[in-house]
Amino acid sequence: MRCLVIRAGSGILPSVMGRDSNAPHICQNRVVPAVPSGAYRRYALVYDLVWRAAPYDRFVDLCLEVAAAQGTTVRRVLVAACGTGNAAVELASRGYEVTGLDLSLEMLTVAASKPPSGGSPPRLIAGDLRALPVRDGWADLVLVLNASINYLLEPGEVVAALAHLGRATAPGGTVVVEPLSARFVHEGWEPGRHVDRDGLRLDADYEVEGDLLVERLRWSLGGVEEAETYRQRLYSEAELEALLGAAGLGLAERRPMWPAIPAQPARGRTLWVARPPG
Fold it and tell me: Beta partners for 231?
């Protein structure tokens, strides 16, 4: 297995396009594809323009609150599927030792350009949730936010990912998973569906096909038009609880984001708080 490790704010921006690039490969493991469809590609370049109103500081507040409620003393945080690094950089700015992991080199490239306002920059690792390149018991708090777990379309993949997250959690630690909400599937968040500002024009269409949510994105920035499609699987609450159990995690709490976070992006979203055995 090989991993790309970069520091946020380091100014190191690895090339992620072009077959002749000398950039290290994404973490690879023979049991998983190198780049499954859930890894954001060119969309990474406009992601923060679309979601800039999301209150990541309050998301972090709430995650730390649920960890405290479980009696977890937090020093080290693993932000799995960290994307463009907003939560990871916020945590690092507060003085925590942070590792952010994502499958998308494009997303990590954006994350690496963001220095924290204080503390040490997060360590950024390219890797897969289903073959987590983090040592056993490293993190006191493990986060998987923004419905990232739902890009795993098979229950067995979810169990494998959750088991790895539990393995990376220290004794007495807490795992926080934010799954895809039924409200988002059926109603979404309008400012994230249609954007026309800062030179970006974006339209996002969502279709439900059985238990899959198909996300079709079309945008134009700087005169360049792009289109990408992604899929997520909506797991019911009963399915999610069973998947946690199959991964060896015990569900401790389901905490709604709203009204603790009184902002529209938090409506209908819930943090699933789990504990590893022991």
Answer: 214
What residue spans in the chain does CATH classification 3.40.50.150 cover? 22-181+236-275
What are 108-167's pLDDT values in tens digits? 999 999 999 999 999 999 999 999 999 999 999 999 999 999 999 999 999 999 999 999
Yes or no: is domain 22-181+236-275 CATH 3.40.50.880? no
Candidates 184, 228, 16; CA nearest to 111 is 16
Closest to 98 in 3D by CA, of 134, 151, 129: 134
**31 or 58, higher pLDDT:** 58
CA distance linking residue 27 with residue 175, whole number of Å: 22
- What residue spans in the chain does CATH classification 2.20.25 cover? 184-232
Instruction: Report CA torsion sign: 236, 180, 36, 5.
Output: negative
| Residue 221 in tokens | 């920035």
